[in-house]
Protein 1
Amino acid sequence: MTSALIDSYGRVATDLRVSLTDRCNLRCTYCMPEEGLQWLARPDLLDDDEIVRLVRIAVTELGVRDVRFTGGEPLLRPGLVGIVERCAALDPRPRISLTTNGIGLGRTADALRAAGLDRVNVSLDTLRPDVFHRLTRRNRHHDVVEGLAAASAAGLAPVKVNTVLMRGLNDDEAPDLLAWALEHGYELRFIEQMPLDAQHGWQRADMVTAEEILAALSARYSLTPEEDGARGSAPAERWLVDGGPARVGVIASVTRPFCRACDRTRLTADGQVRNCLFAREESDLRGALRSGAPDARIAELWRAAMWGKKAGSGLDDPAFLQPQRPMSAIGG
C-alpha cells in the first residue's frame, strides 16, 4: 500500500492544515455569533508535543510538504513560536505558513520568522474601521494593518490578504482593496462566503460571487488570467493586474469548486482528521496518540481517513448540509 495520503479518486494530500485553537478574539458575522461559542475544553486540545508529533508523522511518513497553522486564531496559542520552530527542524523540512486575523502579528512577526515561518495569510475585509467594527464586532482595524506591515518587514513574503465581501457592508470596496494591496506589495485574494458559520445562516443568494467580484475589479483594472497550469492545486484562480507582475486571486469555493485538484488534509485542534473542509465525518487521532499507538498505526488511521474522501464538497447538491462544526473549530 502506498505511504501517501491518497483517496479513492487518485488525489494525493500533500498540504496539511493544522488548527491550533478554536478560540478567536474577533466575532466576524460570517463566522460566529456576537457572544462567541462554547470553546473546546483545554484537556481536549492537543498539546504542543502531540501537534509536533502528528506533523512529523505527516511529513516523514505520509508525504506532506506544506503545513499551515490555523485556528480559530493561531496567535492565541501560547506555544506557537515553539511549535513552528520544531516543525521547521523536521527532515524533510516542510514549507510552513500561518493563517491569522493579524491581531498580535505586530509583536510576533519577527519571532515567528526567526523560528522558521515562511509566510502568512492575513484576513482583512475592509479598509474602513467603522465597517471593520460592524463585521468583526471589535475595534481592532489598526492592529491588523500594523500586523500586515510587521509581517512584510519581517520577510514573511509573499504577504497574502484574504477578503470576504458581504453584501451591503463591504461589497463596494473590491477595487479600493486591490489598489491598497498593490500599494503595499500584498497579494489580495477574495474568498466567496462559505456555509461554515456557526449560526447556519448562510444563504447562497446573499453571497457575493466571484463573477461579481471580477466585474467590479475589471471596471478599474485590466485582468489577464494566469497561464493554464500555473494554478496547480492552489484554491485561488489568479489574474495578472494591468499586465503584471502583480496578481489578484479569487477563491470561488461555491460557484467554481476546485475539488478535483484538492490536495489538503485537515487536523482539528482536538486531534480529528477531516478529509474535506465540508465533511460531516471526522477520524480520531487523539485517542490513538493518548493510548500509546506507534507512529505506523497513526499513519495507517490517517491514510484510511483520507481514502474515504468524497468526490466533491456537495455544495451544488440540494440536500447539502453544513458541517456541524463552524469554520473556527475546523481550521481554514
Protein 2
Amino acid sequence: MIFVAPAILFFVLIVLVPFLRAILFSFQDWNGISSNIKWVGWRNYGNILHDMAFFQSFLYTIKYVLISTVLLNVLGFLLAFVLNMSLKTRNLLRTAFFLPYVIGPVIIGFIWQFIISQLLPEIGKALGWPLLEQNWLSLPTHAFWSLIIVTVWHSVGYFMIIYLAALQGVPSDILEAAEIDGAGRLERLWHVVLPLIRPAMTINLFLAISNGFKAFDLNFALTRGGPFGSTESLALHIYLDAFSKNLFTYASAKAVIFFLLLAGVTMVQVAIMKRREVEM
C-alpha cells in the first residue's frame, strides 16, 4: 500500500476528480468565471443534437482514425518485417524510425508547420512542381493529408517496435516445419506469422484507435483546426469551446459524450480482437 498510495493519490486528484467534476458540470450552466452556477439538467446534451460543428468534428475524427489506424499498422508491420531480417544496418534503421516518437508532438507540429508552409513551397518553385508550390495547410483536403503524413511519420516507429518484438517471438522451428511442408514465404506469413503476432495486432489497433480519437497536440500545433474548421478533431473542438468561447459546461457535456464514444469503440475492438486470438 505504501508503494501504491502515491500512484492512487495522483490518479484520484488528476484523473478521477476532474472526470467526476466534468460530469457534474455537464448538467450546469457556467462560463468559468462567474460565481453564479445554474443547474440546467439535460439541456447541454439536448443542444449538442443541433450542434453541426460538433458533428462535423465527429465525422472528421472518424475519417482521421480510420486512415491513420490502417496506415500506422500496415507500415509499422512492413517496417518491422523488413528490419527483422539480417540487415547490417538494421539497428541504425530501427533507431532512425523510432527517434521521431521520442520528440514531443507539439514540437513536431511546429517543425512540420515550417516545413509544409515555407520549405516545401520553395522546393516546389525550384523544381517546378505545382503540387509542392502550394501551402498545403491553407487547403482543406491537403491540410487533412498533411496531418495524416505527420502522424504516420511521428508514430510509425512505435508501432514498428511492438510488431518487431512480436516477430522476434515467433518460434523458428514452426517456420522451418512449415517450409519443409511446402509452404511458400507468403503462405508462412499469412498462416503462421500473422496468427502468432495477433496479440501485438490487438495492442497496436487499440493504441491507434484510442490515440486517433484523442488526437490534439499535432492538430493544435499544425493546423489549429483550420482552414475553416476542416481539420478540427473532437478533442480540439471541445478544447476550443471551453477555453476560447468560455462554454465550460457545454464543453463538459461534449467531453462526457466523447468519453462514452471512445470507451465503447475501444471495448468493442479489444473484445473482437481477443476473441479472434482465442479462435486462432
Protein 3
Amino acid sequence: MERNYRQQAWLDSAEALDFLHELTGLARSADELLKLCEAERCTAYIDCGFAVGPVPEDLLFVRKIRGAGHCELLEAGEVALSPSASRSEPLLRVSGHVLVRGMVWVWSDDKASASREEGIWRLDLSHLCRTLYFKPAEIEALAVRLQAGPLANREQRASA
C-alpha cells in the first residue's frame, strides 16, 4: 500500500527513503541520505521545541532560549541509526550539541514574556536522541536532481 507522503508535514528518515525510492525507483540507505544532506543536496530538520540552549555571548540581555518547532540542522554532535518503538526500520537520530537555524523563544531581562526570533542557535540535546525529519517537497526536489545527475544514469545502466 502506497502512502501519500506529499500530504504529510514531515517525513522521518525511513519515510523519506521510501518516498525517494517511490519517486526514483532507486533504493538508498540512511547513510546515503545523510551524505546527501552533508553535501547540501537535501536538508534535515529536528523538532527542537523541547530544547534549551546556552545563551550566545553577544546577546547581553537574553537570559534563556528554547527551540520553537522544527529547525534546520546545520551541525550535529552525533548522528546514528537507532531503533524506533513505533517502526520496524531504524531511524536517523541526532544527539549531543547541535547547531540549528530556526525559530526560538527568547526570554530577556526587560520583558516578562517570551518573544520569537529567527536565528542560528546552538542547542544541547544532552543524551536525548532526536529524530531527523525531512520536508516532502525537498525530497521531491532531491529526486529530480538525482534522476538528472550522472550518478542516477550509472545506476540505471548497471541495473539494466
Protein 4
Amino acid sequence: MAISTSLWSFALVVGLLTLTPGLDTALILRTSALGRRRRAWGVVLGIQSGTFLWGALTSVGVTALFTASHLAYVTLRWAGAAYLVWMGVRMLRDTFRGLPVTGAGEAEPPAGEDSVTGGWRQGTLTNLLNPKMGAFYVAVLPQFIPAGASHFTMGLMLTAVHIGIGVMWSAVLIGCARVLHGWLRKPQARRLLDRITGTVIAAFGVRLALGD
C-alpha cells in the first residue's frame, strides 16, 4: 500500500468517525453556544493534544502494552468514567440549584471563564481518560502503515491527518453554535442546554464504565 493511499484511506475512516456525534461534539457545541469562544477552541486544542499523544504512543508501541494489561485498561476506564459522570452530574446539579450558568442576562461570560487554558485542560482530560481512544489507535493505526515504512514517522503522519480533520470539523461546529448564542442569552435556555449536555456526558461515563 502506497503512503498516499494509506493517508487517504485513513482520512476516510477517521473522517466518518469525526462526523459521528459524540462526547467531543457535545462539549464543543455547548461551550461555543454559551459564548465561550476562546474556551471552545481550548477544548478543541485539548482534544487534539490527547489525540496526538495517543497516536505518538501507539507509534512507539506503548499503547499496545497498555491495552495488553487488563488491570491498566480497567483502571483508566473507571477513572475516565468517574470523571465524565462527575462533570455531567455537576452540570446538572448547578442548573437545578438555580446557580447562574455564565451570569444571568450577560451577553458574554466573565473573562475568567472564557479561557483557552481552562478549555484545553478539560478537552485533554476528556480525551486521555478515554481508553477506547487508545484501543482504537492500537487496532486501526497499524493497518494503514505500508510495509517498509517507518512505523513512528508514518504513525505521526496518520495522526496529523486525524487532527487536521478534527480541527476543521470543530471549526464548523463552533461556527454553527454561534447561531444559537442570541437565544442562549436567556438563563432558562442556558440551563436547558446544560441539562441536555450534562445528561449526555454522564451517559457517556456510565456507558464507559459498563463497557467491555
